[in-house]
Amino acid sequence: MFQKQTVKEFIEWCNKWIQNSYDILAENSALYVWLGADQNDNFQPLPQFMIMMSVTDFKSRSFITMRNQRGYGTQKNWMAIRQELLYYTKGNPEYKVQYTDIPKILKGYYKEVEGKITETSERSKSDTIRSGNVWVDIQQVFYRMEENVNGCYGQKPLKSIERIIRASSLEGELITDFFSHSGTTLIAAERTNRRCFTIDIDPLFAEISIRSLEHLRTDGKSGWQASNPFAKELSELNNKELEEIGITV
Fold first, then answer.
1. CA 94: distance to chain centroid?
2. Are residues 157 and 246 in the same domain?
3. From residue 46, how far is each of 52, 65, 86, 170 by CA, in Å?
4. Can you give the pTM of this predicted structure?
5. pLDDT of 91-126, one tens digit each?
6. Which residues are 82's β-sheet partners?
7. Which CATH number fits the domain that encloses residue 153?
8. How far apart are CA 183 and CA 215, in angstroms?
9. Which of 140, 132, 135, 131 is nearest to 69 (CA)?
10. 205 and 165 share a domain?
């Protein structure tokens, strides 16, 4: 299981799995890493991780920020509403432009094309805005959403995982995730017709990932919303047994 580590210990551990990742990835591959930044402690471990990555063979490509619709409030600091996603590549993988659901409403940037003055929307390939490195169109996961898996507090939005999968892979290709948690990458790969190998050091999250895929295949659901993957087992316990595992009744 994961244990609390110093930043130095954490970076040393990250360096090991990053190197292992580089060794097993195809010649032309993409690597995405979600990583937090503690704003109350010099933003660690984000800067240390980025420095560590700078001496690997991976090439940095983008620093993506996903804006949460909700954050944890404070009266003495700016509300924390962002999540960081680092994008690296090995070799020269293809990248497919992704578009958001946000319609284009602003006009401007006129230029001449084949003797005709054109406006941005006339030259566009889509009626919606192209996805950049600041994502404001993805809802963070909470209990009212179907994809929600109760107890998985690090769960990433399915839409965000599907976006990076579509941008950096083709149907039928293999996706790997060494930190499965709620199984979101597994679900996203299934929905986008990719293969997926995923693991988790915690047997509980490994079981949740398996149940998530089974739930999708049998019921067509991406999660349990306000319920959870162990609802059946919990329903068979009495009040004393529930209290023994930390559930107040």
1. 20
2. yes
3. 10, 13, 10, 30
4. 0.89
5. 999 999 999 998 877 666 677 777 887 777 766 677
6. 67
7. 3.40.50.150
8. 11
9. 140
10. yes
